[in-house]
Amino acid sequence: MKDHYSDRKYIIGAMIVLPVLFFIVRLFILQVIDPSYKLSASSNVLRNVTQYAARGLIYDRNGELLVYNQPVYDLMVVPGQLAEFDTVELCQILEIDREYLDQEISKARAYSMFRSSVFLKQISSRTYAVLQEKLYKFPGFYVQLRTLRSYPNDIAAHILGYVGEVDGRIIDEKQGYAMGDYIGITGIEATYEEELKGEKGKNVFLVDVHNRIMGSYQEGRYNIPAVVGNDITLSIDAVIQKYGEKLMQNKIGSIVAVEPSTGEILALVSAPAYNPELLVGRVRTLNFRQLAADTLKPLFNRALMAHYPAGSAFKVVNGLIAMQEGIVNEHTRHTCPGHYTVGRLTVRCRYHTTPVAMPEAIQVSCNTYFCHIFRDLLDHPKYGSVTNGYNVWADHVRSFGLGERLEADFPNELRGFVPPSTYYDRFYGENRWRSLQLVSMAIGQGELSVTPIQMANMTAAIANRGYYYTPHIVRNIENSDNDRAFREENFTSIDSVWFEPVIDGMHRAVNGPDGGTARIAQVQGLDICGKTGTAENPHGDDHSVFIAFAPKDNPQIAISVYVENAGFGSAMAAPIASLIIEKYLTGEVTRKWLEDRILSADFINREVASTSRQENLSDEQED
Amino acid sequence: MSRKINIWANLDWMTVLVYLVMLFIGWISIYSAVYDEEHQSIFDTTQRYGKQLIWIIAAIVIAAAVLLTDNKLFLFFSYFFYAITILLLIAVLFFGTEVNASKSWFQFGGIQIQPAEFAKLATALALAQFLSTTKLKIHDSRALLTMGSIIFLPVLLILLQPDVGSSLVFFAFILVLYREGLTGWVLFFFILFGFLSVLALLLNEVNMVALLVISALSAYMIIGRNMKTAAKAVLIFALICLAVMGIFQLAAPGTMLVVKLITASVAGSLVLMGLAFRNKRNKASLLLGLLIAALLYTYSVDYVFDNVLMPHQRSRINIVLGFDDDPLGQSYNINQSKIAIGSGGLTGKGFLQGTQTKFNFVPEQSTDFIFCTIGEEFGFAGSTMLIGLFVFLLLRLIYLAERQRSQFARIYGYSIISILFTHFVINIGMTIGIVPVIGIPLPFISYGGSSMWAFTVMLFILLRFDAVRMEFLR
Fold first, then answer.
1. A82 chain-B contacts, CB cut-off 8 A
2. Over 50: is that where the pLDDT of A614 sits?
3. ipTM score here?
4. Most buried one in A102, A134, B184, B187, CB count within 10 A?
5. What is d(CA B179, CA A10) in angstroms, rounded to the nearest whole number?
6. Which residues of chain B does A45 touch, with a Cβ-Cβ cutoff of 8 Å?
C-alpha cells in the first residue's frame, strides 16, 4: 500500500530526540555543573533516634517510690556517616583505648553501615557533658538518651526483679522487641512487662556535615512519640518490707506477710537479699555472675521457691480437718505420757499438763494428741480404707492452697508437695501402707512440703475463718483495671465453726497463762495468734518456723517466717514475726532488747551465731 | 513447525537484548533503592527486589507465550480484547481495591491487576484494527468520531477512578494518528495547549508563556511549508536556546531559571520569526491572531482556575499538578529527587553507595522515582546511558514499525512507541523537575509486575508481527 506520510517518521523521531537532548542538558547541569545539589545531599543526612520509653514507676501501698528511672547516655555510631576524626581525642574523652574503639567500629560496620549501633553504653553525665561540646568533631557519632532503673530504698529486690537487654531468643519469640531494648527478666518487672514497658518512639532528624541537628525531618512527620509505661502500685508496705529485710540480715530464710481481708502481700522477704542497684546498668553482668556464684544463693527467692517441711505449725490444719471430719470435737481429750509410742515407733513430746483438748493441744503443741487424731482419721471405718481416708485428708489440705501454685502475680512460684495416695502406693505398694507409716505428717514433718508464701496464705485462711484471697502483690496499675481475679474468695473445705477452737489455741500459744510455746511473740493489746514450728532438716540444724496473725478478731496481718538452721520456732521465727506485727499494727517497736537480739543473731557466720543461739534455747522451750 | 523456527530466526534479537538489559537495570536499581541489610540477598522474595525477579521471570515466560501465539489472534480479536478491557475498567470502579483514594486495582489474593495497564494495549490493538480498514479516510467525520471514541472511552473510565497519570498516556495516540495522516494541526495544538496549561498553572509567568507561544508558532509557520525545513528550524531553535542557557551558566550561574528561560526563548523565537517572515510574509496576520488567542487562553486558565472552580476542584487539579499532596508537597519531593540525582556527579557514588535513596528522602524510590537511584549511584554517565538506551529502543521500534508490510502492524507499532515514549518522558521529566509529579512508572525499570507485564506483552506482540512480516501483504 502506498504510504503518503512516510516522511512523518522523521518528525516523530525528532520529537523523541528533542526532549531527550533537553534531559541530557538538564542532567548535565544538575549532576556535573551545579554544585548546590551535592552540598544539599551532604546536609541531607538523616538520623533515626529511638525514643526509648521510660518504664512505669513502682510505688508501695502508701505511695512511697520503690523504683524510678534515671537518665543515662549511650554513645551511638552510624558507620556509614563516619568521617576522619581524631581518635586519640575521642579515646581520651571516653577513657577508652584504641583497641576498644577499633573493635567497636568494626563490630558496628559488620552489623550495618546505615543503622546505628551502640558504641559505648551508659556514659556518665560528666563524660557526657565534655563529649557533647566536642561532638561536632566526630560525625557519625551521637548520643542516645536512655533510662536505667534506680531504687531509692534498696529494698525488695526479689519482688521487683530486674531489667535486662533482650537477647536473640526473645527478639525471635516476642513481638516488638529489637536489639538493645530492655525487658523485665524476673519479679514484677517480668510479670507486668506489658504494663511497665510503654512504647518506643522515634525521632528523625536532619543532620548537617558538622554533625549538628538541623531540625526534624519533614517537620516531624515521621516522628513517633514514645509512650511512657504505666505506673504500678504494689501492696507492699515499704516500711515493713525494709524492717523485715533488716531483721533477716545474716540469716537465711523468708518472711511473707499478707493482709487476710484482701490477699495483698504486705512484705515478702527472702534472705539473704541483695541490693537491687547491683543489677542495673553496665555492672549488671559482672554482679549477676557473682551473685549467681554465691553459695548462699541470694538470687533464689526463698519466699516463693524454697520447699520446707511445714513443721508443727501444720498441726492447726490437722486439728481443723479432724474436727471437720467428726473425728474429734473441741472437747475431745487425749492423754499425753510425754511421747507417742506404737511398737518400735516413738514420737517424743515435751512436758505439759495432761490430758489436753484441741485448744490446749495447739497451745502446747502436743505431738501425742495430733498423732492420735491423725491416725484416727486415716483409720476411720467410714472411709473403707486408709487410702480413702488419706485422700479425704489430702483434699482438705489442698483446700488451704497447699501443694499447688497459688497463681499469684509473680513468676517462678513453686508448688510445694502434698503427696497423692499414689505416691505411697508406689513406695509401699497398693493398700500396703498403714496410717502409722504416715504419722510424721500429723506433726507437719514427712513428705509434706510447703513454700513460705503458702504458709502465709494458709495462715490468712485461718485468720479469715475458712477462706483466702489469692495472695498478690500489685494493688493498682495506671490506666488499667488490674482484674486478675484476686477479688474472689477461695473457700477451704472446713466449716467456719471449727476455726474458733484452733484460733483459741493459737491465741493461747502466744498469750496463754502457761505452757504456751510462743510467748515470746506476745505483745500487749495486739492479740496475736500464732503457732511455732520446727522444721526437721536432714542436712543440718532444724529450721525455725512461725505462723501468726493479729489481731485475733478482725485480723489485719497474717505472716509466716522461716529461718533456716535457727532451731526452734520460738527461737528466731516467732520474735521476728512478732516484731513485724507490732511494727505494722502500731508503727513502732517497743521491745528494743528483742530487736537487738534478732539483729545480732547470725546464722551465716556460724561461730558468731553460736552464743545467741544458746541463749535462745535456754529462754524458751517447745516441741 | 517451520513457522515456529521462522519466528525465532526472524525475531529482532537486538530489541530483545535491550529489553532484557532494561529489566536487569531495573532489578538491581530496585535492589539498591530498597536495600535492607537484614535481607541482603537480592533473591530474597520477601523484599521488593526478590519479588521483582519473580515478576521478571514471569515476564519472560509471558513474552515467550506471546511469541508462540498466532499473531492473527491479535488481529481478529482486537475489538474483543478492547470490549473486555472496557468491561474491566467499568468493573474496577465497583469492585476495585481503593488505594490512595483511587480505585485502580483488582486484588486477587497476593496479585494485583491494574486494568488501565492493559487498556493501553487493547486500545492500541483496536485503533490499529480500525485505522487499517481499507479505504478509510482519516479526516472523514465518522472516522474521526470512531477514533476519538476508541481513545477517549478508556480515558474517561480511567479518569473516574481517578488515575490522571494513566489517562494522560492515552493522549499519546495522537502521535499515531499523525503518522497515519491526521493533520499536523491537531498534534500541534494538542502539544501547545498541554504545554500552556501546565506552564500557566505551574509558573504563572505570562511573559514567558507568551514568548514560548511565539517561538512555537514560528516553528509551525515553517512546518506548514516543508517538513525538512521544519525539522531544521526546530533544531535551530533548540540550539539557540541551549547556547543562551550555556552562556548564562558560564557567565552568571546565579541567574534565576525564569530569566534564563525567557532570554533563551526570546533569542530562539526572534531567529525563527525572521525565518518565518522570510518564508511566508502573507501569513503575518494569522501569526498575530494565534498569539493573541494563546495569551487569552493562558489568562483564562488562570482565571477559571482561581474564580470559577470550586475549592475541591482546585485541590484536585493541584493534586494532578502535584502541588497539594501535603504542605511540603511537590516542591519537597522534586527537591529531594533532584538532590539525589544531582549528588551523583559525573560517575555516581557507586552501586549501593547512594545516601539519598537509602534513607527514604526520596518518595516512591522503587516505583515512580527509580531513576533517582540510577542518577545518584551511576551519575551523569549512568543516567545518560539509560536515557540513550531508551532512545535507542524507541528509534529501533520506529525502524521496526516502518518496515512492516501490514498497516495494522505499523499502526500498532507506533502505538507502542507513543505509549513507551510518554511514560519515559513524563517519568524522567518528573524526577529531574521539569514535568509536574505525575505518578506513572518508567517502563521495564520501575518496580511492579502489572506494568512490566503489560509493557512486555505490548512489545512482544510487535516483535511477533515483525518476525512474520514477510507473510503479510495486507
1. none
2. no
3. 0.78
4. B187
5. 10
6. 355, 359
